[in-house]
Here is the input.
Amino acid sequence: ADTYMELNLKIPILFFDIESTGLNVATDRIVEICAVKIHPNGDQEIKTRRINPTIPISPEAQAVHGISDEDVKDCPTFKQIAKSLAQWMSGCDIAGYNSTKFDIPLLAEEFLRADVQDFDFRKRKLVDVQTIFHKMEQRTLSAAYKFYCGKELDNAHSAEADTLATYEVLEAQIAHYGDIGETVDELSAYSTH
Here is the structure.
C-alpha cells in the first residue's frame, strides 16, 4: 500500500496568488494578493490585500477576477504595503500555480518599483505546482490516448497510428465532455479560442 506523504517543512512556505491589471509582468500591477504562510508545525496565517494599482484595470482582467477600478480606488498602493509584506515574506520559501512565469516576476517588479531592495527571490526556494502537474501528467498523444481511450498507443510516432489515435481521442473527448460540442464549428471554436 502507498504510504501517505505530506508536505515536510523545515522553514515556513508561502503559497501566494495575485490578481492583476493584466498579463504583462513588466507593466501591469497587482490589484489583489493573497498569501498563506504554512509553518512547519502546520499553523497557517492568511493575508489577503486589495491594492490600488494606480493604473486602470484592463477589461479582460476585470472579466477574470471581477475587481473594478472603483473597488480599489481607496485601497493602499503597493508602495504603502511593500515593506511590511517583504518583512512578512522573509525567511519563507514560496509556492504558487504558474508562479514562476507570472506571480513571482510581477511581485519582483512591484518590489523594485516600491524600492524594496532586500527581498531576493533567488535566495528562496520556489515551488510551482503547475510545473509539477505538467511534468507528471504528460500532455503527449500517448498520454491522451491512455486517458481518454484507456489504451496504450502502440507504434507512437508512426504517422498512421498517431493519426488514427487522434481521431479516437477526439471521439472520446466529445463523449467525455458534454459541453464542447460535436460539430466541427463548435469543436473548432472551442479548440482555437
